[in-house]
Amino acid sequence: MKKPNKYYVEKRISRVFFYLGIIIICIIAVFPLYWMIIGSIQPKQNFFDYPPQLIPLNITLSNYTDIILSKPIFGWIANSLIVAIGAVIITLIFTIPAAHSLSRFKYRGKNILAFIILSAELLPSVLILIPLFMIFLRLKLYDSLFSLIIVNVGLSMPFCIWVLKGFFDTIPREIEEASRIDGCNEFQILFRIILPLSYPAIITISTLTFLTAWDEFMFSMTLISNRENWVASVGLKSFFGQLLTPWGQVMAASVFFTIPVLILFAIFQKYIISGLTGGAIKG
Fold this sequence. Notes:
Elements: H1 6-40, H2 62-70, H3 73-104, H4 110-122, H5 129-138, H6 145-169, H7 173-181, H8 186-197, H9 199-215, H10 218-223, H11 232-237, H12 247-278
Helix pairs in contact: 1-12, 2-12, 3-6, 3-9, 4-6, 6-9, 7-8, 9-12
Protein backbone atom coordinates (compact mmCIF):
# COMPACT_ATOMS: atom_id res chain seq x y z
CA MET A 1 0.00 0.00 0.00
CA LYS A 2 1.39 3.39 -1.03
CA LYS A 3 2.00 5.84 1.81
CA PRO A 4 0.61 9.36 1.42
CA ASN A 5 3.34 11.89 0.80
CA LYS A 6 4.34 14.47 3.40
CA TYR A 7 2.76 17.39 1.52
CA TYR A 8 -0.62 15.63 1.35
CA VAL A 9 -0.60 14.87 5.11
CA GLU A 10 0.36 18.45 6.02
CA LYS A 11 -2.37 19.79 3.76
CA ARG A 12 -5.02 17.60 5.39
CA ILE A 13 -3.86 18.54 8.89
CA SER A 14 -3.87 22.25 8.07
CA ARG A 15 -7.37 21.93 6.63
CA VAL A 16 -8.58 20.19 9.80
CA PHE A 17 -7.18 22.98 12.00
CA PHE A 18 -8.63 25.59 9.66
CA TYR A 19 -12.17 24.23 9.92
CA LEU A 20 -11.72 23.64 13.65
CA GLY A 21 -10.81 27.31 14.06
CA ILE A 22 -13.89 28.35 12.09
CA ILE A 23 -16.10 26.17 14.31
CA ILE A 24 -14.62 27.69 17.47
CA ILE A 25 -15.09 31.24 16.17
CA CYS A 26 -18.71 30.47 15.21
CA ILE A 27 -19.41 29.05 18.68
CA ILE A 28 -17.93 32.15 20.34
CA ALA A 29 -20.01 34.42 18.08
CA VAL A 30 -23.29 32.54 18.49
CA PHE A 31 -23.03 31.72 22.21
CA PRO A 32 -24.23 35.16 23.48
CA LEU A 33 -27.36 34.82 21.33
CA TYR A 34 -27.91 31.28 22.60
CA TRP A 35 -27.40 32.40 26.22
CA MET A 36 -29.88 35.21 25.71
CA ILE A 37 -32.52 32.78 24.43
CA ILE A 38 -32.11 30.18 27.17
CA GLY A 39 -31.96 32.93 29.78
CA SER A 40 -35.32 34.22 28.57
CA ILE A 41 -37.03 30.84 29.10
CA GLN A 42 -35.58 30.03 32.52
CA PRO A 43 -37.33 30.70 35.85
CA LYS A 44 -35.71 33.55 37.77
CA GLN A 45 -34.62 31.20 40.58
CA ASN A 46 -32.52 29.20 38.11
CA PHE A 47 -30.91 32.14 36.37
CA PHE A 48 -27.85 32.30 38.64
CA ASP A 49 -27.39 28.56 39.16
CA TYR A 50 -23.78 27.41 39.40
CA PRO A 51 -22.70 25.68 37.31
CA PRO A 52 -24.97 27.38 34.77
CA GLN A 53 -27.47 25.25 32.89
CA LEU A 54 -26.41 25.30 29.25
CA ILE A 55 -29.46 23.16 28.49
CA PRO A 56 -32.33 24.43 30.66
CA LEU A 57 -34.33 21.75 32.46
CA ASN A 58 -37.16 24.01 33.62
CA ILE A 59 -38.65 25.98 30.74
CA THR A 60 -41.13 28.79 31.24
CA LEU A 61 -42.58 31.58 29.12
CA SER A 62 -43.46 33.73 32.12
CA ASN A 63 -40.73 36.23 31.29
CA TYR A 64 -42.33 36.90 27.92
CA THR A 65 -45.86 37.18 29.30
CA ASP A 66 -44.69 39.47 32.12
CA ILE A 67 -43.06 42.02 29.82
CA ILE A 68 -45.95 41.93 27.35
CA LEU A 69 -48.44 42.64 30.14
CA SER A 70 -46.36 45.19 32.04
CA LYS A 71 -44.49 47.09 29.30
CA PRO A 72 -45.56 48.61 25.95
CA ILE A 73 -42.81 46.58 24.31
CA PHE A 74 -44.46 46.30 20.89
CA GLY A 75 -45.00 50.05 20.87
CA TRP A 76 -41.29 50.54 21.51
CA ILE A 77 -40.46 48.18 18.64
CA ALA A 78 -42.88 50.09 16.39
CA ASN A 79 -41.20 53.38 17.35
CA SER A 80 -37.79 51.92 16.52
CA LEU A 81 -39.08 50.74 13.15
CA ILE A 82 -40.51 54.18 12.39
CA VAL A 83 -37.21 55.87 13.27
CA ALA A 84 -35.04 53.31 11.44
CA ILE A 85 -37.13 53.17 8.26
CA GLY A 86 -37.53 56.95 8.21
CA ALA A 87 -33.77 57.38 8.60
CA VAL A 88 -33.14 54.93 5.76
CA ILE A 89 -35.48 56.74 3.36
CA ILE A 90 -34.13 60.23 4.08
CA THR A 91 -30.52 59.00 4.04
CA LEU A 92 -30.99 57.48 0.59
CA ILE A 93 -32.63 60.67 -0.72
CA PHE A 94 -29.59 62.77 0.23
CA THR A 95 -26.80 60.19 -0.03
CA ILE A 96 -27.38 59.08 -3.63
CA PRO A 97 -27.00 62.52 -5.29
CA ALA A 98 -24.13 63.45 -2.94
CA ALA A 99 -22.17 60.28 -3.74
CA HIS A 100 -22.94 60.64 -7.45
CA SER A 101 -21.66 64.22 -7.40
CA LEU A 102 -18.40 63.26 -5.70
CA SER A 103 -17.89 60.31 -8.01
CA ARG A 104 -18.75 61.76 -11.41
CA PHE A 105 -18.49 65.56 -11.48
CA LYS A 106 -15.52 67.92 -11.35
CA TYR A 107 -16.04 71.28 -9.65
CA ARG A 108 -14.21 73.74 -7.47
CA GLY A 109 -14.08 72.75 -3.80
CA LYS A 110 -14.87 69.09 -4.42
CA ASN A 111 -11.86 67.83 -2.44
CA ILE A 112 -12.62 70.19 0.43
CA LEU A 113 -16.21 69.00 0.51
CA ALA A 114 -15.07 65.37 0.55
CA PHE A 115 -12.71 66.15 3.43
CA ILE A 116 -15.51 67.84 5.40
CA ILE A 117 -17.75 64.80 4.93
CA LEU A 118 -14.98 62.49 6.10
CA SER A 119 -14.27 64.76 9.09
CA ALA A 120 -17.94 64.63 10.07
CA GLU A 121 -17.64 60.85 10.34
CA LEU A 122 -14.69 61.24 12.71
CA LEU A 123 -16.47 63.75 14.94
CA PRO A 124 -17.54 62.24 18.30
CA SER A 125 -21.33 62.33 18.45
CA VAL A 126 -21.29 63.33 22.13
CA LEU A 127 -19.96 66.76 21.12
CA ILE A 128 -23.16 67.62 19.28
CA LEU A 129 -25.56 66.21 21.87
CA ILE A 130 -26.17 69.44 23.82
CA PRO A 131 -26.33 71.75 20.74
CA LEU A 132 -28.85 69.42 19.07
CA PHE A 133 -30.87 69.25 22.28
CA MET A 134 -31.12 73.05 22.37
CA ILE A 135 -31.97 73.24 18.66
CA PHE A 136 -34.73 70.65 18.84
CA LEU A 137 -36.09 72.26 22.00
CA ARG A 138 -36.42 75.64 20.25
CA LEU A 139 -37.90 74.07 17.14
CA LYS A 140 -40.43 72.24 19.34
CA LEU A 141 -39.17 68.88 18.07
CA TYR A 142 -38.18 67.65 21.53
CA ASP A 143 -39.86 64.36 22.47
CA SER A 144 -40.57 63.66 18.81
CA LEU A 145 -39.60 60.63 16.77
CA PHE A 146 -38.82 62.97 13.87
CA SER A 147 -35.93 64.42 15.86
CA LEU A 148 -34.44 60.94 16.20
CA ILE A 149 -34.84 60.38 12.46
CA ILE A 150 -32.91 63.59 11.74
CA VAL A 151 -30.16 62.63 14.20
CA ASN A 152 -29.72 59.16 12.73
CA VAL A 153 -29.60 60.57 9.21
CA GLY A 154 -26.76 62.83 10.31
CA LEU A 155 -24.95 59.97 12.01
CA SER A 156 -25.22 57.66 8.99
CA MET A 157 -24.79 59.92 5.98
CA PRO A 158 -20.99 60.55 5.99
CA PHE A 159 -20.08 56.85 5.99
CA CYS A 160 -22.87 55.97 3.54
CA ILE A 161 -21.71 58.64 1.11
CA TRP A 162 -18.19 57.20 1.07
CA VAL A 163 -19.40 53.62 0.65
CA LEU A 164 -21.71 54.58 -2.22
CA LYS A 165 -19.11 56.82 -3.85
CA GLY A 166 -16.62 53.95 -3.84
CA PHE A 167 -19.16 51.73 -5.55
CA PHE A 168 -20.06 54.39 -8.13
CA ASP A 169 -16.34 54.69 -8.95
CA THR A 170 -16.29 51.04 -10.04
CA ILE A 171 -18.97 51.55 -12.71
CA PRO A 172 -17.30 52.12 -16.11
CA ARG A 173 -17.86 55.61 -17.48
CA GLU A 174 -18.22 54.16 -20.99
CA ILE A 175 -21.73 53.01 -20.05
CA GLU A 176 -22.72 56.58 -19.24
CA GLU A 177 -21.14 57.93 -22.42
CA ALA A 178 -23.11 55.43 -24.48
CA SER A 179 -26.29 56.52 -22.69
CA ARG A 180 -25.60 60.18 -23.43
CA ILE A 181 -25.20 59.33 -27.11
CA ASP A 182 -28.65 57.70 -26.93
CA GLY A 183 -30.06 60.96 -25.56
CA CYS A 184 -30.20 60.33 -21.79
CA ASN A 185 -29.69 63.27 -19.44
CA GLU A 186 -27.87 63.06 -16.08
CA PHE A 187 -30.99 62.17 -14.09
CA GLN A 188 -31.89 59.38 -16.50
CA ILE A 189 -28.34 58.04 -16.36
CA LEU A 190 -28.43 58.05 -12.57
CA PHE A 191 -31.81 56.37 -12.14
CA ARG A 192 -31.81 54.05 -15.16
CA ILE A 193 -28.14 53.06 -15.38
CA ILE A 194 -26.13 53.71 -12.24
CA LEU A 195 -28.64 52.87 -9.49
CA PRO A 196 -29.74 49.50 -10.98
CA LEU A 197 -26.05 48.52 -11.16
CA SER A 198 -25.48 49.70 -7.59
CA TYR A 199 -28.25 47.83 -5.77
CA PRO A 200 -25.78 45.88 -3.54
CA ALA A 201 -24.35 49.17 -2.28
CA ILE A 202 -27.84 50.68 -1.89
CA ILE A 203 -28.93 47.70 0.21
CA THR A 204 -25.69 47.90 2.20
CA ILE A 205 -26.05 51.55 3.20
CA SER A 206 -29.76 51.02 3.89
CA THR A 207 -28.98 48.14 6.23
CA LEU A 208 -26.17 50.01 7.97
CA THR A 209 -28.42 53.04 8.47
CA PHE A 210 -31.19 50.82 9.82
CA LEU A 211 -28.82 49.16 12.30
CA THR A 212 -27.39 52.52 13.38
CA ALA A 213 -30.87 53.88 14.09
CA TRP A 214 -32.01 50.66 15.75
CA ASP A 215 -29.06 50.50 18.16
CA GLU A 216 -28.72 54.23 18.91
CA PHE A 217 -29.18 55.02 22.61
CA MET A 218 -27.55 58.29 23.66
CA PHE A 219 -29.67 60.66 21.57
CA SER A 220 -32.79 58.56 22.10
CA MET A 221 -32.35 58.79 25.85
CA THR A 222 -31.75 62.55 25.72
CA LEU A 223 -34.33 63.70 23.18
CA ILE A 224 -37.27 61.51 24.23
CA SER A 225 -38.92 61.75 27.64
CA ASN A 226 -42.42 60.37 27.06
CA ARG A 227 -42.55 56.67 27.88
CA GLU A 228 -44.87 55.99 24.96
CA ASN A 229 -42.32 57.48 22.53
CA TRP A 230 -39.39 55.41 23.73
CA VAL A 231 -37.53 53.29 21.21
CA ALA A 232 -36.33 49.75 21.85
CA SER A 233 -32.89 50.68 23.21
CA VAL A 234 -34.35 53.07 25.80
CA GLY A 235 -37.13 50.64 26.66
CA LEU A 236 -34.59 47.92 27.34
CA LYS A 237 -32.72 50.22 29.70
CA SER A 238 -35.89 50.69 31.76
CA PHE A 239 -35.69 47.08 32.92
CA PHE A 240 -32.53 47.82 34.89
CA GLY A 241 -33.40 48.87 38.44
CA GLN A 242 -31.25 50.52 41.08
CA LEU A 243 -31.54 47.58 43.48
CA LEU A 244 -33.05 44.77 41.42
CA THR A 245 -32.85 43.77 37.77
CA PRO A 246 -35.18 41.04 36.40
CA TRP A 247 -32.62 39.42 34.15
CA GLY A 248 -35.09 36.92 32.72
CA GLN A 249 -37.26 39.79 31.49
CA VAL A 250 -34.20 41.61 30.16
CA MET A 251 -33.29 38.54 28.12
CA ALA A 252 -36.87 38.15 26.86
CA ALA A 253 -37.03 41.80 25.82
CA SER A 254 -33.64 41.44 24.12
CA VAL A 255 -35.01 38.53 22.10
CA PHE A 256 -37.92 40.67 20.91
CA PHE A 257 -35.60 43.54 20.00
CA THR A 258 -33.15 41.25 18.18
CA ILE A 259 -35.64 39.48 15.93
CA PRO A 260 -36.11 42.34 13.38
CA VAL A 261 -32.33 42.78 13.05
CA LEU A 262 -31.75 39.05 12.53
CA ILE A 263 -34.46 38.92 9.86
CA LEU A 264 -33.00 41.94 8.09
CA PHE A 265 -29.45 40.57 8.14
CA ALA A 266 -30.55 37.08 7.04
CA ILE A 267 -32.33 38.53 4.00
CA PHE A 268 -29.65 40.98 2.86
CA GLN A 269 -26.43 39.33 4.07
CA LYS A 270 -24.98 38.57 0.63
CA TYR A 271 -25.77 42.07 -0.63
CA ILE A 272 -24.11 43.68 2.41
CA ILE A 273 -20.86 41.78 1.82
CA SER A 274 -20.76 42.56 -1.90
CA GLY A 275 -21.71 46.19 -1.28
CA LEU A 276 -18.91 46.75 1.23
CA THR A 277 -16.26 45.01 -0.85
CA GLY A 278 -17.39 46.24 -4.29
CA GLY A 279 -16.09 49.74 -3.75
CA ALA A 280 -12.64 48.50 -2.87
CA ILE A 281 -11.95 47.22 -6.43
CA LYS A 282 -11.67 49.60 -9.32
CA GLY A 283 -13.75 48.65 -12.34
